[in-house]
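Example record

Each entry pairs one chain with its bound ligand, UFG.
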Amino acid sequence: MKKERILVTGGTGYIGSHTVVELQQAGYPVVIIDNLSNSDRAVLDGIEAITGIRPDFVEADCTDLEALKALFAKYPDIKGIINFAASKAVGESMQKPVLYYRNNLNTLMNLLDLMGPNGVKGIVFSSSCTVYGEPDVNPVTEQSPIKKATSPYGNTKQISEEIITDVINAGAPFKSVILRYFNPVGAHPSAMIGELPNGVPQNLVPYLTQAAMGIRAELSVFGNDYDTPDGSCIRDYIDVVDLAKAHVIAVERMLQDKSEEKIEIFNLGTGRGVSVLELIAAFERATGVKVPHKIVGRRAGDIEKVWANPARANQVLGWTANTPLDDTMRSAWAWQCKLREKGVM
Ligand code: UFG
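C-alpha cells for the complex follow.
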C-alpha cells in the first residue's frame, strides 16, 4: 500500500534527520521544512547516502505562515506532521526568552491552524522529560506530576502540550501524539548523519566526544556530591535511532487510526538511569579511547536524577529502546571521527 506523505519540520536537525531516514526506510515520502538555523543543507546528502532517496526540502521558517501555506499548496498530499522545528538550548532561552516563545509557539500554532484546512490527520510533537522537573520519584511515568518549568525553553514544551490538548479538546479534526524524550545521544551507525556541533557543546555527549578528540582540553563533570551512588547526576540516555523509530510508529498509529484517544502521551527512554561517570566509563570501554575529565562544581539548574518508566510506549506502541549503551557510544565516536575527517571539527 502506498504510504502517505509526512511533513517533517526541523528535518535537517539532529533528531529530525534520523527520523527522516527511518520514515524513508519504512516507505514514507517526506518533505522537510527547515530554516537551517541550527543545521546544514549537507545533511540532505547524508540522508540520501543512507536511504538512496533525497527527501524534498523547503528552506523556510515555520513561524512564517505564508511560507507554510505555500508548502501545503505545493504538497497537498501531506497527511501527517512530525514537528521538530524548535529552539532547544536551555541556557540561551534564559537570555532570549522572546525568541524561544516566538519560535517554538508560533511554529506550533501555525501548523495547528493549517492542519484542518489541509486535511492533515495528525501531528507528532517533540516534548521533553524536562516537563517533570526534579521528580519526587523515579522512574517517571506519564502520570508523574508536571513541575513548574525552570527555563523559557522548558516552559515552551509545557505550553505546547497544553495548546495541543486545548485544540484537540475543542474538536479539531486531527489527532496528536506527544513524545517526551529523555536524553537522546549517539548517531546513525553509518556515521553519515549525527549531531552537528554549534559552538561549544552544552550537552554531555558532544562535549565528551570533543574532549576525547582533543578539541576540548577536558570534560568538566558537573558535581560529584549529588545523592546518587557515585555522586554524579543520573539521566536516561536513549539512542537517537531508537528514538527516531518511535516516531514512525507514532505517525503510523495516527494515520491508521489505531488509537481510541485523540491525544496520547508517551515517555521515550530506556528505563535505565546512568550517571555521568558511568557514561564516561561506558564510552572508554566501548571505544578504547580515554576521556580527559575533571570534577568541577554543580551546574546551576541541573536535575539530580531522572529516568523513564517507558512501559506505556513499550506496551501500546510495541516499541523498546534496545540499542546497547556501548553501541551508542561507538556511534557517537564514529560520528565525531567523521566530522574530523570532513574537516568540520
Ligand atoms: N554534564 C556534565 N558536563 C558537561 C555537560 C553535561 O557533567 O559538560 C552533565 C550534566 O550536569 C547532566 C548530564 O551531564 O548531569 C546531562 O547533561 P545535558 O546537558 O547533556 O542534558 P540535560 O539532561 O541537562 O538536558 C537535556 C536537554 C534539554 C532538556 C533536558 C530535559 O539538553 O534540552 O535534557 O531534562 F530540557
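The domain at 5-184+238-268 is CATH 3.40.50.720 (Rossmann fold).
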